[in-house]
Design a protein that fits this description.
Number of strands: 12
CATH architecture: Beta Barrel
Largest sheet: 12 strands, antiparallel, barrel
Distance between the termini: 33 Å
Strand order of the largest sheet: 1-2-3-4-5-6-7-8-9-10-11-12
Number of helices: 4
Number of domains: 1
Structural class: mainly beta
Helix content: 10-25%
Radius of gyration: 19 Å
Order of helices and strands: HHHEEEEEEEEEHEEE
Strand content: over 45%
CATH topology: Outer membrane phospholipase (ompla), Chain C
CATH class: Mainly Beta
Shape: globular
Length: 284
């Protein structure tokens, strides 16, 4: 289960490499009979991720895990999750949105002497509006999501605890036509994030018990939690193998928790790469 949660978290980062290439254009390949109805493969992702937004310490994660893609007429599942649930029109699509944060153990200097943070798993509904429709090669869409967050502690079995709510609004652009003959696609993603006081408190509160001379008492409010801008590219090497890369800038200036003593940086940079190997596919 721990590996599954890390898979979801890293995929949320590495989806920028492979999934965002599908994010605004899931259906067009199937409609043009270029892609199989389903495929099974291996996703080998590497990502360098901050311990939490605002931290000045990072960890590197390497995780090879299988993936399954299904391109049905009404519902699709890919490396981003299940799509086309409830509403699926040429301009509107609903889906399940996933995100998360890796666990933060005692090796984080800012949290020295404080309890470890369990892995955060977020899941909830998302709504996408495609300005030019879902089927062109080059697409522009607006995505809004509302996710419910739970922490997972594995020290004494499986302990899941509800931690709060996060919302996001993103503008996503995907280009597949400019370098189509070379098998290269790229995309950009920018948006703002929000969270309630419960989720912000989980990361940024400092209790009186854990306050000290260089780390004062702090209680976080809910509200704005930062701006993100990302770029991704995917290159098809062979029919079965693709390479992908991802870069994201997160800025937390002006957030509800900016004054927390646990915030050491206003800017974080996430980088990742992936080797995607398609092992099997349907004939249909």
């Amino acid at each position: 289960m721990k590996k599954i949660i890390l898979y979801v978290i890293i995929l949320e980062i590495c989806i920028g490499m492979s999934g965002k290439a599908i994010d605004c254009s899931v259906a067009q390949d199937s409609l043009k009979n270029k892609s199989p109805l389903w495929e099974l493969g291996l996703f080998n992702g590497v990502a360098r991720i901050p311990h939490y937004p605002g931290a000045d310490e990072y960890s590197t994660y390497i995780l090879p895990l299988p993936y399954f893609i299904y391109r049905g007429q009404f519902i699709q599942s890919d490396r981003e999750g299940v799509r086309g649930i409830f509403i699926n029109t040429p301009h509107i699509e609903t889906s399940l949105s996933f995100s998360g944060n890796p666990p933060v153990s005692g090796d984080n200097d800012a949290r020295d002497g404080m309890p470890d943070l369990g892995a955060i798993l977020e899941i909830g509904p998302a709504l996408k509006w495609f300005f030019m429709g879902r089927y062109p090669l080059d697409t522009l869409c607006l995505k809004t999501a509302l996710r419910f967050a739970s922490s997972a502690d594995f020290d004494s079995g499986m302990d899941l605890r509800y931690q709060g709510i996060r919302g996001s609004v993103n503008l996503i652009y995907q280009n597949r036509s400019l370098f189509e003959q070379k098998g290269l696609s790229f995309g950009f993603n920018a948006g703002a994030n929000f969270a309630d006081s419960n989720l912000n408190s989980y990361f940024y509160n400092v209790s009186e018990e854990h306050a000290r001379s260089d780390r004062g008492f702090f209680e976080s409010d809910g509200g704005y939690t930062g701006f993100s801008a990302a770029a991704s590219a995917q290159k098809k090497i062979t029919r079965s193998i693709s390479l992908a890369s991802y870069f994201r800038w997160d800025n937390i200036a002006g957030t509800a928790f900016e004054d927390s003593p646990l915030v050491k940086e206003n800017n974080n940079f996430v980088i990742g790469c992936a080797l995607i190997w398609k092992i099997m596919e349907s004939e249909k």
